[in-house]
Structures are given as C-alpha cells and as structure tokens.
Design goal:
This protein is mainly alpha-helical. The chain is built from 15 helices and no strands. The two termini are 54 Å apart.
Length: 341
C-alpha cells in the first residue's frame, strides 16, 4: 500500500482551499458583496424602478413641503378667491377664464362655485392622503410583523387562534363596515350640534384601516416562520440556550426583511386609494379639508362644466399609484437572488 507524501498532498489541499473560497464568494453574490449591496446594484440597473422611485420621492417631497410651496405661491386651500374677487366666476359659478380659470395667478385654475385655488388644494390633498396612508402602512407592518412571527414561532393553540382571527378579518368587508359604523361612532363621540373634528376623522381612518389591514402580512410572515423555525440554524440556536426573543430578532427577523419590505411597498398605494375611496363616499375626510378623494368627489359633480377640476387630482393619483406599484415590483425583483439583470 502506497502512503502519499506530504509534498504530494499539498497541491491538492491548496486547490481545495481555493475552491472553497471561490464557492463562499459565489454564495455571497459572486464577487464577495453583501446581499444588500447586490440588491441595490440590481435595483439601479432597473430603469423603470429608478424612475418610479424618483416619482414617488417627488410626491412625498411635495406633500411635506406643501405649506412652504403654498406660502411662496401666495395662496392657501381654504380662501374662496372666486367669491372674494370679482371677475373670477360667472353668474353660474363657473370660472370665467377657459380651462377652469387657469392663469398666471391660479396655475391649476379655481374651484367652481366656491372659487378655491386648485393648486394649493391639491398640494394639501396630497399631503393629507400620504400622511394617512403612510401612518397606516407603518402600523399595519409593525402589527403584522409582531403577530405573524409570534404565531408562527409559538405554534399550537396560539397559532390556531391567530389563524382564525386572520381568516375572519380577511373575509370581512372592511369598507362596508366603515361605512355602516362611521355614523354610529360619530354620533357617540361628537354631539349633534358640533362638527366632527378633522383629527377624529384621521384617527378613525387610520384605526379602521389598520385593524383590517395587518392580517395579510401577518399570514405571510406566519407561513415563512413556520418554515424557518425547522431550519438548522434555528435548531442550533435553541441547543445553545438562546432565548425565544434572541432567536426571533437574531435568527428569524433578518431572513424576513425581503417579504416585509415588498408587502410594505405594495400596501401604501392600496391605502391611498382606500382612503380616497372613503372620502369619495363621504365617510372619510370631507370638504373643506383638502384630500384626493374630496377633490375627486367634488370633481364628479362639476365635470360637465369644468373637467379640469377633476383632471389634476385624478391624474396625480393615477401617476402616484402606478409609480409606487412599479417601485414595489422593482424592489421585489431586486431582492430576489434568482433575478438576473
């Protein structure tokens, strides 16, 4: 029997070491980069995603800077300029100038009958709609993460109970519930002789949409955790005596950021349209509070005489929702390791 000498095995061992290093580098993204950097690199190559990101950022900047823009513009969304200044509205309440009264003084024209400035009304409408949608998305994501991971990790009766609650919420018509429950809640909280405070409407919208919105992300994360908790790295953490909190935050949660981020990016435009739909139906924000849904609802009443009043908020909402949905698709593709660009 021939015994290999150390000199003969050294080249083989060196080759094996090089191959191991090469395999490790390939598993980390091909060039040793972290998964986050690789995802960012894939996203930057997606021209549609980058353009959509710029459009979404533009809308958020417009919403945040709405008071400053309105101050520089010299108008506000509440003053009825058409009634205060002669020559802006005719005897029927329609703008005197063509295209809804668009001029150098009123960039997007004025509202029929009341004569409010459409440009500033739209700015503050974007601000309010995005505020409500962003707050709802944040709360839905946090609650969905907490309940979904807890149910999936604990299992047993806890998982069964949470699963049944999720089934009920997903089957429940939340919009119809809000339409029916809204007048009852307002009659209890607000005296009949007083107007409903705007803050109460905003809090109610966020609360109801959050109460019915966390179920979908919780169900997704529950399924992910059920699969992850049987993996070797979780079992190894249990053997070493790691606490459940450490396992959740150190082992499970880092592997769930991809579905969490994707769900959040797809949820925000959904809540924008949901809030606008409720305002359109008259159970959310109402005039004179600026809002996308309020403008579209008002535009549906005057579109035959002034189509431009509905054109601006309608086009703005369509552009934002499409851009955010495209951004969500691009983020999903960038975070998918199997995506090749």
């Amino acid at each position: 029997m021939t015994i290999p000498t150390p000199h003969a095995s050294a080249p083989v061992e060196a080759e094996d070491a090089k191959q191991a290093i090469s395999d490790t580098s390939a598993s980390k993204g091909g060039d040793g980069r972290s998964p986050g950097k690789m995802a960012w690199r894939r996203f930057k190559r997606d021209r549609t995603g980058v353009i959509s990101a710029y459009v979404v950022i533009f809308f958020f900047v417009i919403g945040i800077c709405a008071p400053l823009i309105a101050k520089l513009y010299g108008k506000d969304p509440y003053t009825t300029y058409g009634q205060n200044e002669p020559g802006l509205l005719d005897d029927f309440g329609s703008p005197m100038l063509p295209n809804g009264g668009i001029s150098s003084d009123f960039w997007f024209g004025i509202e029929p009958s009341l004569g409010r400035d459409v440009f500033t009304f739209l700015l503050y409408g974007i601000r309010n709609s995005l505020l409500i949608a962003a707050a709802t998305t944040l709360l839905v994501t946090v609650i969905g993460i907490a309940i979904g991971i807890t149910a999936g990790y604990l299992g047993g009766k806890t998982d069964y109970f949470v699963g049944r609650v999720i089934d009920i919420l997903l089957a429940f018509p939340s919009t119809l519930f809000f339409i029916a429950f809204w007048p009852v809640m307002i009659s209890i909280l607000v005296p009949p002789e007083e107007n409903t405070p705007v803050w109460l409407t905003v809090v109610s919208l966020i609360t109801v949409m959050t109460a019915f919105g966390w179920a979908s992300i919780a169900r997704l994360l529950r399924g992910e955790v059920l699969a992850l908790r049987e993996r070797e790295f979780v079992e190894a953490a249990k053997v070493t005596g790691a606490s459940p909190a450490r396992i959740i935050f150190k082992e499970l949660l880092p592997n769930l950021w991809t579905p969490i981020l994707i769900q959040a990016t797809l949820a925000l435009p959904l809540y924008v349209t949901a809030e606008a739909g409720l305002a359109f139906l008259g159970v959310g924000l109402t005039s004179p509070t600026p809002d996308w849904g309020v403008m579209i609802q008002r535009g549906s009443e005057v579109y035959q005489s002034d189509i431009t009043f509905m054109l601006f908020p309608g086009a703005a909402m369509v552009i934002f929702v499409i851009a955010f949905n495209l951004l969500g698709d691009s983020v999903r593709d960038a975070l998918d390791p199997k995506t090749k660009r």
